[in-house]
Amino acid sequence: AKELAKSILSTFSTDGRVTTALQKSYIKQYLNTLYESENIDSDYIKELIINLKAAGYTDITDTASEAFITS
Known about the structure:
The chain is mainly α. It has helices at residues 2-12, 21-36, 42-54, 62-70. Helix 2 crosses helix 4 (62-70).
């Protein structure tokens, strides 16, 4: 999970920190894709989120994330 978190942060963060609503929105959408995958263990997702939160990620609603991405 740490390696995937690093990969997500390298794509969706600024210098390893998640600071904007748009960055959180893209991460939320990515996590939703993982949730929908049948091969992903829920404990793995939880560990991934813990790693992302250490970089400043906070969860936002699906509606909010879609609004930020489409605006």
